[in-house]
């Protein structure tokens, strides 16, 4: 699973977005999504056909700290009043 959100993509990004390394059976097992990316590498022209351009609703789970179990490994933000 690969999801890019709010990512500035330079022209070094491969326009296809994904390579199956000559194993087309991998194409059916990958999830490739993009949400509000910018820059010359963010153009969807040439992307693999199964690239998903995610909606506001579809991206929500991926932007949640719960998705990455953030409470288990991320420190809380500093308290400026201390």
UniProtKB/TrEMBL annotation:
Residues in Pectinesterase catalytic domain copies: 2-70
Database matches in InterPro entries: Pectin_lyas_fold, Pectin_lyase_fold/virulence, Pectinesterase_cat
Subcellular location: Secreted, Cell wall
One Pfam family hit: Pectinesterase
Enzyme Commission (EC) number: 3.1.1.11
SUPFAM superfamilies in alphabetical order: Pectin lyase-like
Pathway(s) it belongs to: Glycan metabolism; pectin degradation; 2-dehydro-3-deoxy-D-gluconate from pectin: step 1/5
Example of a GO MF term: pectinesterase activity
Gene Ontology biological process terms, A to Z: cell wall modification; pectin catabolic process
UniProtKB keywords: Aspartyl esterase, Cell wall, Hydrolase, Secreted
The keyword Repeat appears for this protein: no
Similarity comment: Belongs to the pectinesterase family.
PANTHER family according to UniProt: ACYL-COA THIOESTER HYDROLASE YBHC-RELATED (PTHR31321), PECTINESTERASE 63-RELATED (PTHR31321:SF87)
Name under which the protein is recorded: pectinesterase
Species for this entry: Prunus yedoensis var. nudiflora
Classification lineage: Eukaryota, Viridiplantae, Streptophyta, Embryophyta, Tracheophyta
């Amino acid at each position: 699973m690969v999801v890019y959100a709010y990512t500035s993509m330079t022209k070094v990004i491969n326009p296809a977005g994904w390579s199956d390394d000559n194993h087309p059976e991998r194409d059916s097992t990958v999830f490739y999504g993009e949400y509000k990316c910018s820059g010359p590498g963010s153009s969807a022209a040439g992307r693999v056909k199964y690239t998903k351009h995610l909606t506001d609703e579809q991206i929500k789970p991926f932007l949640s700290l719960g998705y990455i179990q953030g409470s288990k490994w991320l420190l809380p933000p500093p308290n400026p009043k201390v």
